[in-house]
Amino acid sequence: MIAARGGALERLVAGLAIATLWTPSLASAACTPARSPADAPVALVLSGGGAKGAWEAGVAAALVEGGLRIRLVAGSSAGALNAAMLADGRLDRLESAWRDLRREQVWALRPSVFFSGFLPGWLTLLAVSGAGSLLDPQPLRDLIAASLDLDRIRASPVRLLVVATDLVRRETRRFDNWTVTVDALMAATAVPGVFPPVEIDGDLLVDGGLTSRAPIVEALDAGLSIGRAIVLVSYAPEGRGDRPATVRRALEDAFEIAMRHQILRDTELARLRHPGVEIQIVTPSVALGLRPLDFDPARLARALEGGRADGTACLKAWEGGDGAR
Prior knowledge:
Largest sheet: 8 strands, mixed
Helix content: 40-55%
Shape: globular
Distance between the termini: 16 Å
Radius of gyration: 19 Å
């Protein structure tokens, strides 16, 4: 079981500060009562979404503190980092990592890309198209290395599953408690073109979201006895996008649409393949107002506490089922 330690007073103060912004929408979290027994082993699946991962971290923290018996955590992209930190077992680190996160800790433009902006128009396009990636991966690598204790993950009773995508074989690559490394987590978050591919054992790996945005099928195929799976999806279903005014916004919106529909399809496939497992999807009760690369501390803190509120609301809703604690 994941240990919950520290930061209770800080969370209470932050929660009270945000209550007027989040509480009225708790009912829209749409968590139905659980049918499975209270002690059913749970697989928690995290889909990520860049900065939206702050909401997932808040939900996960609330569920763990509420006594949910998590046996496996799985994730891709930012969800892979959250999953690894949950397997590490220190909720205080998970939450402080998101609450204190700054943009420069995650990404920075490569110098070649930055200076290409001073070139004439067609030369800028040529320079950018020839770059290996837009962003320098070193800040994210340093953050991952400083945030995780791989020895704790190896010894954790919570099974970890992290997915990346093999660019050559065009298939999902899996990592667990014993095979996960900083390189594996870098690969799991390496959005093609944004971050460079990561070479592991001679294979070029990129973001796991290309083949499995929310690795629910992979989690249930892992061979563990799981009675219930909870899939955290950081895209509010009722959230409507504005007309994109830039190329970046258009690409981000297209990416999120594709990812959300992939998650829904994979969840239905998992239900067909594992009919004995209760599978629930949890989404934000309100749109997060975060873009994937929008690592603004105030917005991240709000998303984190909003996730806590949604997780708490779900725990209360689940208490009304046959498996009420």
